Amino acid sequence: xxxxxxxxxxxxxxxxxxxxxxxxxxxxxxxxxxxxxxxxxxxxxxxxxxxxxxxxxxxxxxxxxxxxxxxxxxxxxxxxxxxxxxxxxxxxxxxxxxxxxxxxxxxxxxxxxxxxxxxxxxxxxxxxxxxxxxxxxxxxxxxxxxxxxxxxxxxxxxxxxxxxxxxxxxxxxxxxxxxxxxxxxxxxxxxxxxxxxxxxxxxxxxxxxxxxxxxxxxxxxxxxxxxxxxxxxxxxxxxxxxxxxxxxxxxxxxxxxxxxxxxxxxxxxxxxxxxxxxxxxxxxxxxxxxxxxxxxxxxxxxxxxxxxxxxxxxxxxxxxxxxxxxxxxxxxxxxxxxxxxxxxxxxxxxxxxxxxxxxxxxxxxxxxxxxxxxxxxxxxxxxxxxxxxxxxxxxxxxxxxxxxxxxxxxxxxxxxxxxxxxxxxxxxxxxxxxxxxxxxxxxxxxxxxxxxxxxxxxxxxxxxxxxxxxxxxxxxxxxxxxxxxxxxxxxxxxxxxxxxxxxxxxxxxxxxxxxxxxxxxxxxxxxxxxxxxxxxxxxxxxxxxxxxxxxxxxxxxxxxxxxxxxxxxxxxxxxxx
Length: 577
Hints:
This protein is an alpha+beta fold. The protein has 2 domains: 75-240; 310-574, 4-Layer Sandwich (Double-stranded beta-helix), CATH 3.60.160. Helices cover 51% and strands 21% of the residues. The protein contains 11 helices and 21 strands. It has helices at 3-72, 78-97, 102-110, 115-180, 200-236, 252-271, 273-315, 388-393, 462-466, 522-526, 563-574, and strands at 184-185, 188-189, 331-332, 344-345, 347-348, 350-355, 359-363, 368-371, 376-382, 397-403, 408-413, 420-427, 432-435, 440-446, 453-457, 471-476, 479-486, 489-501, 505-509, 513-518, 533-547. Strands 3, 5, 7, 9, 10, 12, 14 and 17 form an 8-stranded antiparallel beta sheet that branches. Strands 4, 13, 15, 16, 18, 19, 20 and 21 form an 8-stranded antiparallel beta sheet that branches. A hairpin with a 2-residue loop joins strand 1 and strand 2.
């Protein structure tokens, strides 16, 4: 490549890098500016809404306070109310003189200054108060006028009553005199009196009639005055001042500019793409926190319940023995036998298995490292057709079957797991061992004899249901079991009583007394470092088998661990697999 091409490529790389950096920085600055505008707009919107809320609360508080004040003024005199009216008129004139113009109020609102709006709202409330004071003053004046009118009406009533009584007496006197001067003619009494003109009777009759007419006019005048006063009293009425109220719409034109500003800010937020993210995120955060809290706390609560409530109940149950009459004798690789009281390792990275002419080896193909050329080899699909599902779940399928020939042997070793070791357990005649089939790698048995496996169900045992172990597989001798274990396999006599981590347990002699006991400390169990129960065994003639280090991938998966894998492990544990 010539220097010109090299320089051109270098310049192109520099130009491309420059464009990429420029685009990224531009995008970053745009996002930063968008969020800055969104944040400032949101804060301003919240501030305005808060200010409006405070203004409305202040209006309601002032309304309540002024209503109580007006209640106390119900018995005030007109002069006292006039003094209050004069004071409020002076205050209003002072506030009106200091009010800014509409333009200045708009500029102040844009700057976030709400004092002009507060002053205007205060001015409106004072004007409303002044109007109510004037109404109350008018009511008091009317009340005083009505009281005077009522007193005058009563006086006029008494005057009319006196005039009417005098009129009735005079009418009675006049009628009596008329009746005395009504004579009879031919037995018929005349209705009108017959007196001689200019006689004393004539003069008296005229006097009584004239007096009656004067009294009648006086009575009618008193009655007219009474009716006029009564009509006047009805006209002024019994007026009372209404309750003091500041309607919400009264201050709408004051808060209207604030509402317009709020509407504008809300519209700005709606147009911002940042709000489309902020809304769902803010709504999802409480739900996410609740889910995280439940995710963290649910296992804690469940484990606390299991450890402090369920486990003590299980630990108090008596131990069980699956086959009391069986022998607990075992022989293993490296010379382990039943009379040895020490825990000894029976495993190695690889084991050489000798096969006699009357024996056959069933082994997992992944563990078959080498084999003699002699001997018949074929495939057996399942370990035992009487337990097809167990064989399938335990991985004991498509096994390699090797039948013995003279001096035939095989080397068994894991070809996949570098930590796995293999051990051989020989079960003599009359002995029986409980083994979890998932630990089985292979089995050596007689060609003419089937594998002797007994399934023992514990459906009536409360312990079995509480610990999720309701079925056990018991292998009977004579046979050899090839088992796997992480970092090694050990065999130990139970003697007076021994305990072992349940996660490490491979199997035990069927004649041992077996009982689950709660683990000693809560925190390791809570952290998933230890199983809830330890297996406890007792019995002089019996052994239990366990792996040196439980596989980390198999810990804490039962029931509540690692989703579907945990459910599968729970299923396999329940059915003894």
